[in-house]
Amino acid sequence: MIHRLSWANWGHFYRAFLKGLKVCVFYLAVLSLFRLFFIAWLHAYMAPGTGTADIIAALLRGTRLSMQTAGALAVCSFLPYLVLAARARMARRVFLAINGVLLAVLSVLYVASFPFYRQFHANFNQMLFTGAHDDIGALFWTMVAEHALPVRLVGALLLACVLWRVLRALFDWNFFECVFSARSFSAPVRFLGRMAFLVLLCLAGLLAVFGGSLGWETAVNWENAGVTRDAFLNEAILDNAQAIYRARELNRRMLACNGLDFTADDIRLLAARLAHREPTSDDLDDYLMRTAEGARLEKPRHVIVVLSESLANWPLLDKYKNIPIASGLRSLIAEEDTDYCPTFLPNGASTVSAVTGVVTGFADANLYLTTMPEAFAAPYPTASAPQMERLGYETNFWYAGPATWERIGAFTQAQGFAHFYSRGDFGDVPGSVWGCEDEVLYEKVLAGLTDEPSFNVVLNASNHSPYDLDLQAKGFDAAAVRAALPAEAQKDDWLVKELGHYWYADRELTKFVHAVREKDPTALLVIVGDHGDRYNIDKTPLLYERYGIPFIVTGAGIRKGMLSPKSAGSQIDILPTLFELIAPKGFAYSAIGTSLTKNTQGVNYGFWITRHAIGKADTAPLVPESLTGGEPPAIDDAALQDYMDAVRSISWWRAKYGNILDDRILEEKGR
Question: Exposed e or buried b for every residue in 301-330, given b needs 16+ CB within 10 A?
């Protein structure tokens, strides 16, 4: 073997693969340094009690995981170099060009990951794919205005340039090539050296393939990388490439509905339990039929559901009562003709999930309904508009933004809304790239309320990045808000601006409620947020404070205690609540949710809530967290699991496969 593997052939092999190893080590070092700086810069997002041991564990775990990424990046540039190795000058140029592109992409992603985490409390995730369906122009200008896109882009490219120069110097540094190619070594030593180098290559390959391990049994991947007790550190463990890979995989599963694995028999049994009847029918719609117990109010002329952008519930908690941003809603909740459920969840993490929940009545079940042909074929039986039309209401959907966003205009009308109004219908009005100002939208809605009874869903947009309202001109007292904040938050100008937009949304919403009442004393209004989870004063908020949204119902005949004192729910419960308030006795309607006059549990894409506890939906058993951070209360684990499985599996099957429960449909259409 020593004679056959000549020095000339071995030299080419050794030098080529040694350069590949150096590139791999370079990328691993870059990714590890990126992670270290990310943790240091955003350390305020670490939970109290997180210590040095947790940080070290995250860095070590992240380094292991990044061996995969580093190996993949090295291969991308090394293989072309290896193919062109006989033409050294061309090989070097191609190598440097490929790595220039790779480093530019890597740097841009890294710089973008900082504002992304601040916005979503996560490394890159499925919101990337949600954004792909969004208004690209609006997203671009939001990033320019809110995140200084040009400055960040220039900084990322400068970073890439520096890293590229370091890599070029490392590539041209031939110390190891010269030392270990010395002919002065004896033949046995040379042979052992070659064997050691081959073993090193094999080890490097295994570590790259299995994420810092030598086999799949102990491999580190994005699904098992989060080993610390701190959510921020678990996200930091993923380098940007791994985070994007995670987002891609989760989105692929979403599109394939891999996250829901139920048979027709499972769903039949769960639907029967939800409906409190025997599982004797193969028609899923039979289990969704409800009968109203009788109107508790005089029939209102106008019914209005306001989906208010980023209207989180935490500013309404006593803990934050001294921060003057929610005085309007606080005063409204205190009125005698208003009831309030403080334990309420959005249907999903983004606005489109709220829209689909209210429009279709379906829980978030890993389906992107605004893109599905089935959702455009005919209204679902649980859809809100056709059922409200049966009560004699003309149905209108009002949106502050463009009709093309998420295909919202076409989608709402396909699901039965007679009229859809958007910014394009309002003329040249002030607003941001996401939509007109709330006061403009409310003015248009108010003008549209005639003597004809109507059901209206109103989706506003002002409390949304880029947070570019002229708050001073609107009358916002920034000094008063700043003075009420904790000392560590008082210097955060951006937080004050965000809170100012909540203040504006609160003020305009309250003014709108009073204006509607004045125009129609019989009117009934429901106010909910589309989602929470955009900004909090605390860097590590409780689950309840981070994700909870308010449910407020107000109007003639509403009184305190009309909702169950143990009420809890989510956006799929809005329409059943309305039916039980205004529909005559015996009125038949279809719903997956339950009226808040009796419902005591809510569920969405990732969480559940009761009047006293909240928790993540993907743990077994469920782990309750107190709403106030105290001792976790007891829960009925089995009942909550059944409820979550029921509303999500029914929503999944009915939206995708129709009303007939038959496993052959899964085989025909594919799961």
Answer: bbbbbbbbbbbbbbbbbeebeebbbbebbb
Q: CA-to-CA distance for 433 and 461, rounded, in angstroms? A: 10
Q: HSE (CB half, 13 Å, CA atoms) of 82?
A: 14
DSSP line for 380-404? -TT-HHHHHHHTT-EEEEEESS-TT
pLDDT value at 448 more than 90: yes
Distance CA 197, CA 204 (A): 10
Residue 142 has pLDDT above 90, yes or no: no
Q: And the tokens for 83?
A: 């193919």
Instruction: Please tell me the distance from the alpha carbon of residue 354 to that of residue 361, in angstroms, as a whole number.
Output: 10
C-alpha to C-alpha distance for 78 and 76, rounded to whole angstroms: 6
* Distant-in-sequence, close-in-space partners of 566: CB < 8 Å, separation ≥ 6: 600, 610, 611
Measuring CA to CA, how many Å separate 145 from each of 149, 152, 236, 557, 648? Answer: 8, 12, 26, 45, 38
* Residues 78, 57 contacting (CB under 8 angstroms): no
Angle at 609 between CA 455 and CA 333, to 5 degrees: 50
Structure tokens, 475: 């009358």
Instruction: Judge contact between 276 and 594, C-beta under 8 A.
Output: no
Residue among 180, 236, 221 nearest 11 (CA)? 180
205 pLDDT exceeds 50? yes
Nearest residue to 19 via CA among 201, 203, 211, 214: 201
- DSSP type of residue 304: E
Helix (H, G, I), strand (E, B) or coil at 578: helix
Cβ neighbourhood burial of 60 (10 Å; 0-12, 13-18, 19+):
middle
Question: In sequence order, which residues have a C-beta less than 8 Å from that of residue 656 and are 6 or more positions away?
Answer: 257, 367, 372, 374, 669
How many whole angstroms separate alpha carbon 651 and alpha carbon 235?
30
Nearest to 25, CA basis, from 131, 160, 170: 170
pLDDT digits (tens, 9 = 90+) for 422-432: 998 998 899 98
Cβ atoms of residues 346 and 532 within 8 Å = yes
pTM metric for this prediction: 0.83
Confidence of residue 250 (pLDDT cuts 50, 70, 90): confident
3-state SS class at 195: helix
**Per-residue pLDDT, 313:** 98
C-alpha separations of 12 from 8, 96, 270, 325, 404 in Å: 7, 19, 66, 69, 58
Q: By CB neighbour count within 10 A (0-12 exposed, 13-18 middle, 19+ buried), where does 539 fall? A: middle
Q: Tokens in use for 457?
A: 């869903």
Instruction: Please name the residue that has the structure tokens 């309202």.
Output: 469
- The pLDDT of 648-666, averaged and rounded, is 93
Per-residue burial over 515-538, b = 16 or more CB atoms within 10 Å of its CB, e = otherwise:
ebbeebebbbbbbbbbbbbbbbbe
Burial 544-575 (b: 16+ CB within 10 A, else e): bbbbbbbbbbbbebbeeebbbeebbbbbbbbb
How many CB atoms are located within 10 Å of the residue 374 CB? Answer: 14
Q: What is the pLDDT of residue 259?
A: 45
Cα gap 27→98, rounded to integer Å: 14
List phi, psi (to 5°) of 549. -125, 160
Residue 2 has pLDDT above 60, yes or no: no
